[in-house]
Structures are given as structure tokens and as C-alpha cells.
Design goal:
The complex is a heterodimer of chains A (114) and B (111).
Chain A lengths: L4 E3 L2 E4 L5 E6 L6 E8 L3 E9 L2 E5 L6 E5 L5 E5 L8 E8 L9 E2 L3 E5 L1
Parallel strand pairs in A: 2-11
Antiparallel strand pairs in A: 1-3, 3-8, 4-5, 4-9, 5-6, 7-8, 9-10, 9-11
Chain B lengths: L3 E3 L4 E4 L4 E7 L7 E6 L6 E6 L3 E5 L2 E6 L4 E6 L8 E8 L6 E3 L3 E6 L1
Parallel strand pairs in B: 2-11
Antiparallel strand pairs in B: 1-3, 3-8, 4-5, 4-9, 6-7, 7-8, 9-10, 9-11
Classes of the chains: A mainly beta (114), B mainly beta (111).
């Protein structure tokens, strides 16, 4: 069974631009969670989607948004990029509940904002 | 106070020794606890999950949970250089559907 895939793997953008990241969960998994990882803050929860609905959201500004499609694939968007948005963005999929089911992480997208 | 706290390390142990990694959490009603291993430049991978007080063993790994003390630990027996990585403790919050991660402990196993 294929693992979680994320595209693109690397991105370089400039301040003020916007970016869209994509995540394809493991086949059969309906929950997708997004995390931001930086050396200073560690892994921080962005949001979680299940059956095309956002079930929970972390403490990030409205510039960060996401959605999930009927095939469980998910995208996250960051608008008006800031230097501090440079990070590794990870998505994780689970069968239903990320709080109890095992979460499987994708390889991540490394975003650099110049 | 952070919701999930870990000693950032680095923790250095000789090959063959027992490595002990600790984690405390603040939400008393947390239900599920996880240990992930993350190699440099890679994404986290699940090592252990534990839901009940006590010990849970899987090969060289033992997770220990003490809900009264709000404490979860991971023991790695017969540590190997390949165990050198950052270990992330994760705790679910009863409210909502999210898991909170600690900042991680860097482990070095010296050959």
C-alpha cells in the first residue's frame, strides 16, 4: 500500500506570494492533518480534515487555509507569505480519528520564503 | 507551561545501554499517547502508542504511562547507533481531533 505523498517536496517563494501544498493520504484513510515544523517551535498543529470537513484548527492566522476533496486528498494554502512561514510542512493521514488512530506522515514539503 | 514537555537533550548513551526518554503533559484528561522517531531530514514515524497506565513493550522499546503523574516515557534497550534520532512525544487532547507534539529529545548513541 502506498504511503502518504506530498507535493511539491521543495518550494522557494518570496514574501507576499501565496503557495498551495498538496497531500494524498494512504488509500482508505479519511483523515488528513497538517503540521508545521520549525527548529524553534517544533511540530505545530495546523488543521485536520475528515470527509471534506475541517474538524479542528490550530492557532495559526487566517492566511493558512486548507480543504479536502471527496477522494480524501487535501491541500493547504498560505497567502501573503512571510519570512517566518519558512518551515517543513507535514501532512499525516489516519483512518478516522488522529487522536486515537495511528497517524502516518508524508515526507513533507520544505518551504523557503525569501 | 507547554502542553507537552520534553527535555531537548541531546541525550548521549553508549551502544548497548538503555536510553530513557521522558515526557510530561498538562491536560489531565488526555487519553492517547504516542512516541515518534524522526531522523534528520525525514518525517516522523510512529514507534509506540499507549493508552493505559503501565508498561507496553515492543521489541527493544518499552513505553511507560503514569496518568496520575501525567508522565509518559520511552525506554530503548540495547541502544544502537541507528537509534540516533529525535524522539517526539505526542498526546491527544480530549477536546477536538488534534494531537499535540512535544519539541522532541535528540538521542545520540555512541558506537
Amino acid at each position: 500500500k502506498a504511503g502518504v505523498t506530498q507535493t511539491p517536496r521543495y518550494l522557494i517563494k518570496t514574501r507576499g506570494q501565496q503557495v498551495t501544498l498538496s497531500c494524498s493520504p494512504i488509500s482508505g484513510h479519511r483523515s488528513v492533518s497538517w503540521y508545521q515544523q520549525t527548529p524553534g517551535q517544533g511540530l505545530q498543529f495546523l488543521f485536520e480534515y475528515f470527509s471534506e470537513t475541517q474538524r479542528n484548527k490550530g492557532n495559526f492566522p487566517g492566511r493558512f487555509s486548507g480543504r479536502q476533496f471527496s477522494n480524501s486528498r487535501s491541500e493547504m494554502n498560505v497567502s501573503t507569505l512571510e519570512l517566518g512561514d519558512s518551515a517543513l510542512y507535514l501532512c499525516a493521514s489516519s483512518l478516522a480519528l488522529p487522536s486515537t488512530d495511528t497517524q502516518y506522515f508524508g515526507p513533507g514539503t520544505r518551504l523557503t520564503v525569501l | 507551561q507547554k502542553e507537552v514537555e520534553q527535555n531537548s537533550g541531546p541525550l548521549s548513551v553508549p551502544e548497548g545501554a538503555i536510553a530513557s526518554l521522558n515526557c510530561t503533559y498538562s491536560d489531565r484528561v488526555s487519553q492517547s499517547f504516542f512516541w515518534y522517531r524522526q531522523y534528520s531530514g525525514k518525517s516522523p514515524e510512529l514507534i509506540m502508542s499507549i493508552y493505559s497506565n503501565g508498561d507496553k513493550e515492543d521489541g527493544r522499546f518499552t513505553a511507560q504511562l503514569n496518568k496520575a503523574s501525567q508522565y509518559v516515557s520511552l525506554l530503548i534497550r540495547d541502544s544502537q547507533p541507528s537509534d540516533s534520532a529525535t524522539y517526539l512525544c505526542a498526546v491527544n487532547k480530549l477536546e477536538g481531533f488534534k494531537t499535540i507534539f512535544g519539541a522532541g529529545t535528540r538521542l545520540f548513541v555512541k558506537a
